[in-house]
Amino acid sequence: MQTQSLTSTNFYFQNQTSFYRGKVRDVYGIGNDKLIIVATDRISAFDHVLPKSIPFKGQVLTQVANLFLDLTSHIIPNWKISNPDPHVTIGWKCDAIPIEFVVRNYLTGHAWRVYKSGGRVLCGVNLPEGMKENDKFPHPIITPATKATSGHDEDTSYEEILSKNIISKEHLDYLYQKSIELFNFGTEYATKQGLILVDTKYEFGIKYGQPMLIDEIHTPDSSRFFYLDSYEQLQSEGKPQKQLSKEFVREWLMENGFQGLEGQLIPNMTEEWLVNISSRYLELYKAMVGKDLEKRSYSDIYEKIEQSILLGISSLEN
Ligand SMILES: Nc1ncnc2c1ncn2[C@@H]1O[C@H](COP(=O)(O)OP(=O)(O)O)[C@@H](O)[C@H]1O
Ligand SMILES: [Mg+2]
User: Fold this and answer.
1) Which of 82, 98, 107, 276 has the most beta carbons within 10 angstroms of its beta carbon?
2) Would the CB of 99 count as within 6 Å of ligand 1?
């Protein structure tokens, strides 16, 4: 059977002032200060949107992010106002700071690739000698990246952000502090669920002069997770960790000759593969949230989403 998924939306709402199609999300501006974000089932890797979508992925992203936005609002205010539909969040539109605040507690992914090729400084942060892939750092580090309007995100550093006057020192110090507090919260939560929060990224924006947490948080797209119970054993045996994140998609693409470089072809995503990746997202949801995702129905999905959004907008006005 053909899988069903939500690849893109094309609504037009009253008071709609802008539309932006991100790699994964469709972002509608409403009036001057609100956004409706539809997390579609699109999947991206190496900054490329893959040609097929993953059933339930947008729902997993939306619901995990909303859970953590609610749980962390005592640490820093965030953009969320409501979650009117399993794929949709309504919230405050902020002036997005074009930096991804990447927090890492393990030598994994990009950090490992830099380390393996001899690098011992990442984004201005010194990396300890003698580490192997997936080892834990003495404490979490922040390795920021610029959020490019087009093309690839690039590594930057605390010093470079300041020298380019991207934000004030006061705001940068505050957001470094908050990124660590959010990460510690995520780590404690994950530990209770038997998971390790390996690394993640946060985005912030400014609203009325105040920094706010925006975008998604602690989702399988923005974070890596390992299983806690098998971590030590696998590490001591020098084996790969069991991945609960998008890393398995990146690995599959690399094994099939795609690393996002020009001229490389995205390998064929079979129905079986889509179902397999979807089940990974569902597994992660269950592991993080502690219960199965209540899978939404895909029949008449556009009408349903539009109706939920209209209701969500009307309750804003009351
Ligand atoms: N509250 C907000 N205010 C302004 N911009 C936001 C807010 N929340 C998320 N965004 C932006 O909306 C977009 C979400 O779509 P996404 O698919 O992640 O796009 P991208 O490909 O740019 O990462 C991102 O560019 C993100 O920075
Ligand atoms: Mg994004």
Assistant:
1) 107
2) no
Amino acid at residue number 91: G
Query: How many angstroms does the Cα of residue 22 sit away from the middle of ligand 2?
Result: 7
Nearest CA to ligand 1 atom 9: 215
Q: Assess whether the C-beta atom of 77 lies below 6 angstroms from ligand 1.
A: no
CA 268: distance to chain centroid?
A: 24
- The residue ranges of every structural domain in the chain are 1-94+167-318
Q: Does the CB atom of residue 215 touch ligand 1 within 6 A?
A: yes
Q: How far is the CA of 156 from the centre of ligand 2 (A)?
A: 17
Atom of ligand 1 nearest to the CA of 92: 1
Question: pLDDT per residue over 106-122, tens digit each?
Answer: 999 999 999 999 999 99
- CATH code of domain 1-94+167-318: 3.30.200.20
226-248 pLDDT, tens digit each: 999 999 999 999 999 988 778 88
